[in-house]
TrEMBL record:
<comment type="similarity">
    <text>Belongs to the class I-like SAM-binding methyltransferase superfamily. TrmB family.</text>
</comment>
<keyword id="KW-0489">Methyltransferase</keyword>
<dbReference type="GO" id="GO:0043527">
    <property type="term" value="C:tRNA methyltransferase complex"/>
</dbReference>
<dbReference type="InterPro" id="IPR003358">
    <property type="entry name" value="tRNA_(Gua-N-7)_MeTrfase_Trmb"/>
</dbReference>
<feature type="binding site">
    <location>
        <position position="129"/>
    </location>
    <ligand>
        <name>S-adenosyl-L-methionine</name>
    </ligand>
</feature>
<keyword id="KW-0949">S-adenosyl-L-methionine</keyword>
<feature type="binding site">
    <location>
        <position position="154"/>
    </location>
    <ligand>
        <name>S-adenosyl-L-methionine</name>
    </ligand>
</feature>
<dbReference type="Pfam" id="PF02390">
    <property type="entry name" value="Methyltransf_4"/>
</dbReference>
<dbReference type="InterPro" id="IPR055361">
    <property type="entry name" value="tRNA_methyltr_TrmB_bact"/>
</dbReference>
<keyword id="KW-0819">tRNA processing</keyword>
<feature type="binding site">
    <location>
        <begin position="278"/>
        <end position="281"/>
    </location>
    <ligand>
        <name>substrate</name>
    </ligand>
</feature>
<dbReference type="InterPro" id="IPR029063">
    <property type="entry name" value="SAM-dependent_MTases_sf"/>
</dbReference>
<dbReference type="GO" id="GO:0008176">
    <property type="term" value="F:tRNA (guanine(46)-N7)-methyltransferase activity"/>
</dbReference>
<comment type="function">
    <text>Catalyzes the formation of N(7)-methylguanine at position 46 (m7G46) in tRNA.</text>
</comment>
<feature type="binding site">
    <location>
        <position position="240"/>
    </location>
    <ligand>
        <name>substrate</name>
    </ligand>
</feature>
<feature type="binding site">
    <location>
        <position position="204"/>
    </location>
    <ligand>
        <name>S-adenosyl-L-methionine</name>
    </ligand>
</feature>
<feature type="binding site">
    <location>
        <position position="181"/>
    </location>
    <ligand>
        <name>S-adenosyl-L-methionine</name>
    </ligand>
</feature>
Amino acid sequence: MSDFSPPFDTPSMYQYVRTGYNHSPPIAESAGGLGELAPMNTNAHPPQDPTVDPGTLGELPSGRPLQTTFTDGLDYPRIGAVSFRRGTLTPNQEALFTEHWPRLGRILADEVIDVDAWFGRSGHPTIVEIGSGTGTSTAAMAPLEADTNVIAVELYKPGLAKLLGQIVREDITNIRMVRGDGIEVLARMIPEASLDGVRIFFPDPWPKARHHKRRIIQSGPLRLIASRLKPGGVLHVATDHADYAEWIDELVTVEPRLEYRGWPWPECPQLTDRQVITKFEGKGLDKEHTIREYLWQRTTD
Ligand SMILES: C[S@@+](CC[C@H](N)C(=O)[O-])C[C@H]1O[C@@H](n2cnc3c(N)ncnc32)[C@H](O)[C@@H]1O
């Protein structure tokens, strides 16, 4: 079991900016109003510096987080940028970070990732997992998809440190990590049509109505994900939160370039079995929550 506490009811763990947004119910039919992603803002973070002070390794820069504005004309574009405020590492984790983060991790920046160079091999499929938490399922799945490059994106540094420890201990070679908002990582660091898969397992449900706008599954992010997937690429989402599942149910056809495949989808070209029950999944099961899984495939147009 992980020692990572869920942020479900503690949104104060996050700093959220630019949240002026009028809540209204999702209207999937309005998909015809899709526009383009707005140009990225220019508050660029500097490129990664390998000579950086070890004490600041994996630290997000202070100040307003990078934020992409979605202007898709739909009701749920996802507004606001998110950054994480809490979490310290144990001395052991600090030592591990100092030794291995420069090779296996990076922070969100306006810098497109050269995936082949980072993984030291070329032409392999690549999957981005957003919100990997402590990486329990990330580390369990990766050895079964050794051919695939897995990029785990997480805001919570101790979660990344836990995954880093497992990678090192178990000599897992196909995982790299990015610390930052997964939406910004996709928008700024991942080229268009370059991914074979995107995974979002048990995203924060933001249960209060006034926080629904912070949910990651919205029309804007779905459009962004579609743009980063290759034709035929797969988006896999799982939630144990009934209200969030209802929300996702209303959005399954909102993005025209994501064809909804439902669940199960036996022909799915990517691994869908998480292999382990993550802490968040386990908490949901303890409460007799139903786990809902969603699969979409990027259209081939
Ligand atoms: C409920 S936990 C689930 C963690 C993990 N997937 C699991 O099943 O155990 C959600 C995770 O997503 C992370 N998270 C939330 N919003 C994020 C974002 N925009 N980008 C990256 N990670 C995010 C949180 O820090 C948290 O670790």
